[in-house]
């Protein structure tokens, strides 16, 4: 259970990013939330999978049991990158917008969120 807390934190922060984005564009916040969230949610899951594989060192089963998603490097950076890149690719595939300014804003806000809590955890530890 304790190992899922970082995933829950990441997911809540990605949802918050989507809520803020919808609100700032004066869109109905909750009715379209799933449409906005799913590409980034899928990217987040991809990031977790990639980070776990990178930490596996050939023994994937035991690595998953030992996997700690709290470190800023490399885990946080991998999760952030995959969330942004995967989210943008899936938005393109699904016909959603990916204006350059949106990519910059999304990358910046998600870095603040997904890397920020990890940096704070490390500083407080």
TrEMBL record:
Q: Which domain of life is it from?
A: Bacteria
InterPro entries documented for this protein: DUF3054 (IPR021414)
One of its Pfam families is: DUF3054
Q: Where are the transmembrane segments?
A: 7-25, 37-56, 77-94, 100-121
Taxonomic lineage per UniProt? Answer: Bacteria, Bacillati, Actinomycetota, Actinomycetes, Mycobacteriales
Record's protein name: DUF3054 domain-containing protein
Q: Which residues form the signal peptide?
A: none
Which of UniProt's keywords are assigned here? Membrane, Transmembrane, Transmembrane helix
């Amino acid at each position: 259970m304790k190992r899922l807390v970082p995933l829950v934190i990441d997911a809540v922060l990605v949802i918050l990013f989507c809520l803020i984005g919808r609100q700032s564009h004066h869109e109905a916040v909750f009715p379209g939330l799933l449409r906005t969230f799913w590409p980034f949610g899928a990217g987040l899951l991809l990031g977790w999978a990639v980070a776990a594989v990178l930490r596996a060192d050939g023994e994937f089963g035991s690595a998953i049991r030992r996997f700690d998603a709290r470190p800023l490097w490399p885990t946080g950076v991998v999760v952030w990158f995959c969330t942004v890149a995967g989210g943008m690719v899936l938005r393109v595939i699904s016909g959603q917008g990916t204006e350059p300014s949106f990519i910059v804003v999304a990358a910046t806000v998600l870095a603040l969120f997904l890397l920020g809590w990890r940096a704070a955890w490390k500083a407080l530890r």
